[in-house]
Design goal:
The protein is 88% helix and 0% strand. It is mostly helical. It has one domain. The longest helix is centred in the C-terminal third of the chain and has 40 residues.
Length: 72
């Protein structure tokens, strides 16, 4: 669930099917290529942070499962 939320949220920054975003950059006169080049470094950093958080979340859940299994 967390991976889906990260992917959906981050992809909405840059995917051109978001009508509101395309309307805003159209009114502002910003070409999509400029927006893409501007957002790409941020998107890559967010994806790296999300990947790290996903690894930590899975490790935490596995740690809880091991603790519960040992108590049995």
């Amino acid at each position: 669930m967390l991976a889906y939320q990260f992917g959906d949220g981050f992809s909405n920054i840059i995917i051109p099917t978001n009508a509101v975003m395309m309307g805003i950059i159209g009114i502002a006169g910003v070409p999509y290529g400029h927006l893409f080049r501007f957002c790409l470094p941020l998107l890559l950093k967010l994806m790296a942070a999300a990947a790290l958080l996903l690894v930590l979340a899975v490790c935490y859940v596995m740690l809880l499962a091991v603790k519960k299994y040992r108590q049995m």
